């Protein structure tokens, strides 16, 4: 059966409606999570500290080794690229400030968010998706436990705390990696490189990366949770939702980073 001329337009309309509905659902999850965080105790539905700490361990402490490894590698890579590029203009001395501002403003927050999206965002989607298809989410509501308070709010709080902390850690490790590679090429010691980096950085450079990481934390949590709650189709649906959560999280992280970079560096 041949496609009618209006079918592409109808498909575009359905996709647009689904996208708007997805934004609305994610906004509802955010609003409910914040309400339960600050006022849930009034209804006997407080966000448990033990649940937040458990999520902080999964999001933060368990991710430290991979964040350390990739941040160190990114620092060395930036040192290599900036030395090669600036050497053509005889400006090798600017490598230190170029690496420092690139890491703190951009790469530290971006790389950390992508890693956490791959680890924790997918885990959130898989865990909530499995509970959805096995009707555990419905069971929570039946026994009087709000699913958003129990599943989403602890993850959101933990992500908002740990992603900026991981970003600061990634900044430090990346600068250390750049120092170990670049210091011999610049005829300085790694200690002198680090000290000069600290003198060139301003609080605004650090806060720019930390602010981005907070926004990325909200995006990762909302996309992972909303995707998990919308799972259908059993185990196959959980697999599709996990993949979709990672892809959407990384796409929105990069888009948000581009918007931040445009307005903060004009």
Strand % is under 5%
Helical content class: over 70%
Largest sheet: none
| 3D shape | globular
Secondary structure category: mainly alpha
Rg over C-alpha atoms, rounded to the nearest angstrom: 22 Å
Q: What's the count of strands?
A: 0
The total of helices stands at 9
Give the integer mean of the pLDDT values.
88
Distance between the termini: 53 Å
Order of helices and strands: HHHHHHHHH
- Low-confidence segments: none
Describe the structure.
There is one protein chain. The chain is mainly α and 266 residues long. 84% of the residues lie in helices and 0% in strands. It has nine helices and no strands. The protein has helices at 7-39, 49-59, 64-87, 95-133, 136-142, 147-186, 190-200, 203-229, 234-264. The model has no long low-confidence stretch (mean pLDDT 88).
Give structural attributes.
single chain; 266 residues
Produce the secondary structure layout.
Blueprint: H1 7-39, H2 49-59, H3 64-87, H4 95-133, H5 136-142, H6 147-186, H7 190-200, H8 203-229, H9 234-264
Helix pairs in contact: 1-6, 1-8, 2-6, 3-4, 3-6, 4-6, 4-8, 4-9, 6-7, 6-8, 8-9
In brief:
Helices cover 84% and strands 0% of the residues. It has nine helices and no strands.
